[in-house]
Design brief:
alpha/beta, Dihydrodipicolinate Reductase, domain 2, 8-stranded mixed sheet, NAD(P)-bd_dom_sf, Gfo/Idh/MocA-like_OxRdtase_N, GFO_IDH_MocA-like_dom
Length: 328
């Protein structure tokens, strides 16, 4: 069994635990929170034996083999490095950090300690993403990758009334690009590699966080077009366009239906079955690589995570989006 500690006590950790309990080898052993009350309440809800309010103590306790980090984006690097230095394996929510400099420090800590580090980008580890990748040769030479994730945030209602919640607070390295845009960007990196160049546009809110934006990724012979928003909705699917056909993806963040539409009019359903608890696949991948003595996933690799964050940094520079973490 792999004994997990939890850092962060929000809804995403509830989802993680539900999924983890479907995975062989997963054991929930400890929870960390800044306050004893929060830690105890979360532990009682999920039947966790050990609680900690000191992260260093949890990492050195011997009660855990690995941590799942779901703290605010601005704290990912700090929390991950503290655990890695104690020999604890780290599965860290997306985005892996606030910027590429932080990612580089995390990768260095992983290398020095020999402990595994993986970005919990679930979409690229789903069976239907594997189906997308396997379908690429069927559509001929790839010419365009288009990904859209525009979902109006309920927290924007509070923002419009004058209350800035964490989702739109740059102090936590939050906003549309970090929350939704990375879901569009990361698959492009996994499928096609690091782009030659990035061009970006976006809209900053009065808080300094971004509400929406777009990116143009330049590759040899093809381009990637990305749009994302937390202040408007879109029902557009995503596509990978080739010279002989197009792969249509219902939701780039969590593909459920994958369809190949050929130029001759044929339509092929390329979807495969996958569990409704989609986070189970990232947990399985993480446990598998640790058991094999590896520090990184082949899909959500260190190089892919760094390339994605370098593209995010390039986009942020172009739209004038800065975080306090950039000055650390």
């Amino acid at each position: 069994m792999m004994k997990f500690g939890i850092i962060g006590t929000n809804w995403i950790t509830d989802s993680f635990i539900r999924a983890g309990r479907k995975v062989d080898g997963f054991e929930l052993a400890a929870v960390y929170s800044r306050t004893e009350r929060t830690a105890s309440e979360f532990a009682a809800k999920h039947g966790v034996r050990h609680t900690f309010t000191d992260l260093e103590r949890m990492a050195a306790s011997g009660e855990i083999d690995a941590v799942y980090i779901a703290s605010p984006n601005s704290l990912h690097a700090e929390h991950a490095i503290a655990c890695l230095r104690k020999g604890v394996h780290v599965l860290c929510e997306k985005p892996l950090a606030s910027n590429a400099a932080e990612v580089a420090r995390m990768l260095e800590a992983s290398e020095q300690s020999g402990s595994a580090l993986m970005e919990a980008m679930k979409s690229t580890l789903l069976p239907n993403f594997a189906a997308i990748r396997a379908s690429l040769p069927k559509i001929g030479k790839i010419r365009r990758y288009f990904a859209s994730y525009c979902q109006y945030s309920s927290r924007y209602d509070a923002f419009r009334k004058g209350t800035v919640l964490n989702a739109f607070n740059p102090a936590f390295s939050n906003g549309a690009l970090m929350d939704l845009g990375v879901y569009c960007l990361y698959p492009a990196i996994v499928l096609f590699g690091k782009p030659r160049s990035v061009k970006a546009g976006g809209m900053l809110l009065s808080s300094g966080a971004d509400g929406e934006g777009s990116m143009l990724l330049e590759y040899d012979g093809m381009e990637g077009v990305i749009q994302y928003s937390k202040i408007s909705d879109s029902s557009l699917p995503s596509e990978i366009q080739g010279e002989d056909g197009t792969i249509v993806i219902d939701r780039i963040s969590q593909p459920q239906r994958v369809e190949i539409r050929y130029r001759d009019g044929r339509i092929e359903d390329a979807s495969v079955g996958q569990d409704d608890e989609t986070m189970k696949y990232e947990i399985e991948e993480f446990i598998r690589l640790v058991k094999r003595g590896r520090r990184e996933s082949e899909t959500n690799s260190h190089a892919n995570s760094l390339a994605a964050m370098e593209a995010v940094d390039a986009a942020r520079r172009q739209i004038g989006l800065r975080y306090p973490a950039d000055d650390r």
